[in-house]
């Protein structure tokens, strides 16, 4: 039975204020991380470095210091806490898994399931080529320098799968000459162990970054083991001030066991996954022009035993799949005249793969072997071009607009327009307005695999309207942002009965609307408070889209000692859409650490606890989350 916490928002804010009074917080020092987000520089919104207050879109930035402060090995829980309107499903102490029972669904403003939020590494798309979903277990926190999140459609620049938003993970570089090695050892509840080591090196024009991560856990339920080993390597060479070339490679080996729902257990639902990604980039940077050519390739090799229920026969096959995404992108930005930027670009992607069931039989059987059953062998091509123009007027008003044309080998062409404006009416204030279209191409599973597949599907579409008000006060020590949005979606793919059989059909529609608040305040150099809240109203029940989400974090660092306390409230989260079963919960987390020697050459000991009050709650129906989780570890650098 699900235990629900019926907390109203007023009660949650009272708790938040109490947390602020505790002073139990982890340090992010004033010279390490500025909170004046209005003047930060971003690259995701226009594919070139641009001041954030000139971008009409809602864009959140998570810096390296915030990622380090979490001591998380996975990036996704950090995003779920720190980004308003963004929610990531989880099912255990660590690991998201694949196939049935998997977590890791990413929603932004209630839009996200079925690959509607585009995940990227350094601007290059990442998803499973056959099934279309993102790859949450492969996004490793130690490899990340910063994350830029577009909350709302990013289809103008990035095409399909950016219907709900874009998460661009920008990987680390070694920027200063010399060598730095960092590591972490951590262990705790449920036999959980986490190891990390990375090395950055730079000498003259050559730089490199290499990392290794390994996580494992017995899981908080029987038969819920999970392990992952990640490797990442990146090398760059800067010819001169104008040209730079870089290449990277990441590999992840994942083992996951899905125990099934607590009232419907599964035996031997084991998954062995190999994921990889590589890219090559050539960048140019002139006084009035900059751009890049990028080639990327990512792939997966999956071997999955679908398992069986107690009392039923053991299955005699494994599910296998090999998938890929191959692509290239070329873009260039020009400054035609004062206050103007003009970007032209083109993208190409080929995505797909093959899936099959491989049958096996007992060694003593005399029956002939059953041949493999091919489920799908298909690939899809996409080719797109886009134009973006931005003009600043009188130093106060910036107009931004563009259009994209994308042609898909299955459903044909699509036009994607976007327009927006930012107004800086007075000092440290920005008002933003935008209207943007988002779309999502049907994936291969929906078109060609398993009933109710339908090869005649067309893209899903939405239009996002938003307005935001941003203000910085007290010399940058207080920043507050209020955003309102309205999303009108149509042609959603839903399963309906046609001639007595289920069929995927473009028949669904939705209206999502709400608002988001985020604020940061630093009363003095050693103390900081962050809060974000999002309210979402949906026209129909949606999985993984809570009506209310509140996160409050405080940090305090008196010298070498650092303390942290944070609270996350999730309200009215649908666990299914048939019975409208909802869940609400409040989680309290804390961390204390002590540093020996310096930041760059030292040792940091820490203890952290999650769900300190032992709340029983669910995010995926039938998959209870763990109670209190305790971890201890050390960070080192030399």
Can you walk through the features of this model?
- With 638 residues, the chain is mainly β.
- The protein has a 22-stranded antiparallel beta barrel. Strands 3-8-9-6-7 form a 5-stranded mixed beta sheet. Strands 1-2 form a two-stranded antiparallel sheet.
- 6% of the residues lie in helices and 57% in strands.
- It is globular.
- 44% of the residues are buried.
- The chain has a single domain (9-637), classed as Maltoporin, Chain A (Beta Barrel).
- The protein has helices at residues 9-22, 64-70, 76-82, 155-158, 444-448; strands at 41-42, 50-51, 59-63, 86-88, 106-108, 117-121, 124-126, 144-151, 165-171, 178-188, 192-203, 206-217, 226-238, 243-257, 260-261, 264-265, 270-285, 289-304, 317-334, 340-359, 373-393, 397-408, 412-423, 429-440, 460-473, 478-498, 501-524, 527-538, 548-556, 561-574, 582-597, 602-610, 618-620, 623-624, 629-637.
Describe the secondary structure blueprint for this structure.
Layout: H1 9-22, E1 41-42, E2 50-51, E3 59-63, H2 64-70, H3 76-82, E4 86-88, E5 106-108, E6 117-121, E7 124-126, E8 144-151, H4 155-158, E9 165-171, E10 178-188, E11 192-203, E12 206-217, E13 226-238, E14 243-257, E15 260-261, E16 264-265, E17 270-285, E18 289-304, E19 317-334, E20 340-359, E21 373-393, E22 397-408, E23 412-423, E24 429-440, H5 444-448, E25 460-473, E26 478-498, E27 501-524, E28 527-538, E29 548-556, E30 561-574, E31 582-597, E32 602-610, E33 618-620, E34 623-624, E35 629-637
Parallel strand pairs: 6-9
Antiparallel strand pairs: 1-2, 3-8, 4-5, 6-7, 8-9, 10-11, 10-35, 11-12, 12-13, 13-14, 14-17, 15-16, 17-18, 18-19, 19-20, 20-21, 21-22, 22-23, 23-24, 24-25, 25-26, 26-27, 27-28, 28-29, 29-30, 30-31, 31-32, 32-35, 33-34
């Amino acid at each position: 039975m699900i235990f629900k916490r019926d907390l109203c928002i007023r009660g949650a804010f009272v708790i938040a204020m109490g947390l602020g009074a505790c002073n139990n917080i982890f340090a992010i020092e004033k010279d390490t991380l500025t909170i004046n987000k209005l003047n930060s520089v971003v690259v995701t919104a226009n594919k070139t470095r641009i001041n954030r207050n000139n971008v009409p879109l809602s864009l959140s930035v998570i810096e390296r210091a915030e990622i380090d402060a979490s001591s998380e090995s996975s990036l996704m829980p950090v995003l779920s806490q720190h980004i308003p309107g963004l929610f990531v499903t989880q099912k255990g102490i660590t690991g998201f898994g694949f196939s049935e029972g998997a977590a890791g669904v990413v929603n932004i403003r209630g839009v996200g399931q079925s690959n509607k939020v585009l995940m990227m590494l350094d601007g290059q798309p990442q998803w499973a080529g056959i099934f279309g979903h993102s790859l949450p277990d492969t996004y490793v926190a130690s490899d990340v320098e910063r994350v830029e999140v577009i909350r709302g459609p990013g289809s103008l620049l990035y095409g399909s799968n950016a219907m709900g938003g874009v998460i661009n993970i920008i990987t680390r570089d070694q920027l200063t000459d010399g060598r730095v090695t960092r590591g972490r050892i951590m262990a705790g509840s449920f036999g959980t162990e986490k190891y990390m080591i990375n090395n950055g090196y730079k000498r003259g024009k050559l730089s490199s970054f290499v990392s290794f991560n390994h996580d494992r856990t017995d899981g908080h339920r029987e038969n819920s083991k999970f392990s992952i080993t990640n490797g990442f390597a990146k090398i760059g060479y800067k010819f001169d001030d104008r040209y730079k070339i870089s290449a990277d490679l990441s590999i992840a080996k994942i083992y996951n066991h899905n125990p099934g729902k607590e009232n419907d257990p599964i035996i031997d639902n084991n998954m062995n996954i190999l994921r990889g990604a590589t890219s090559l980039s050539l960048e140019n940077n002139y006084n009035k022009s900059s751009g890049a050519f990028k080639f990327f390739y990512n792939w997966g090799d999956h071997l999955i035993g679908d398992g069986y229920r107690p009392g039923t026969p053991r299955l005699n096959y494994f599910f296998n799949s090999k998938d890929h995404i191959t692509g290239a992108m070329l873009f260039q930005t020009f400054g035609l005249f004062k206050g103007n930027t003009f970007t032209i670009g083109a993208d190409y992607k080929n995505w797909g793969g093959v899936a099959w069931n491989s049958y096996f039989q007992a060694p003593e059987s005399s029956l002939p072997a059953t041949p493999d059953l091919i489920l799908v062998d298909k690939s899809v091509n996409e080719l797109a071009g886009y134009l973006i123009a931005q003009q600043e007027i009188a130093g106060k008003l910036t107009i931004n607009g563009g259009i994209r044309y994308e042609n898909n080998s299955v459903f044909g062409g699509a036009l994607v327009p976007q327009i927006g404006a930012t107004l800086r009416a007075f000092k440290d204030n920005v008002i933003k307005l935008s209207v943007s279209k988002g779309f999502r191409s049907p994936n291969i599973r929906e078109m060609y695999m398993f009933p109710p597949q339908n090869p005649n599907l067309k893209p899903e579409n939405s239009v996002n309207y938003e307005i935001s008000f941003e203000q910085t006060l007290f010399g940058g020590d207080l920043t507050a942002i209020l955003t309102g949005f309205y999303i009108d979606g149509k042609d959603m793919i839903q399963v309906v009965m046609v001639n007595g059989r289920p069929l995927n059909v473009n028949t669904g529609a939705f209206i999502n609307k709400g608002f988001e608040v985020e604020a940061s305040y630093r009363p003095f150099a050693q103390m900081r408070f962050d809060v974000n809240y999002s309210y979402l109203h949906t026209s129909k029940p949606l999985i993984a889209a809570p009506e209310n989400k509140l996160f409050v974090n405080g940090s305090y660092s008196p010298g070498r000692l650092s303390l942290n306390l944070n609270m996350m409230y999730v309200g009215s989260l649908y666990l299914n859409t048939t019975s409208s079963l909802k869940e609400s919960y409040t989680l309290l987390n804390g961390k204390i650490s002590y540093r020996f020697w310096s930041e760059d050459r030292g040792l940091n000991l820490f203890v952290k606890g999650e769900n300190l009050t032992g709340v029983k709650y669910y995010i995926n129906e039938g998959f209870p989350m763990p109670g209190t989780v305790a971890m201890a570890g050390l960070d080192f650098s030399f």
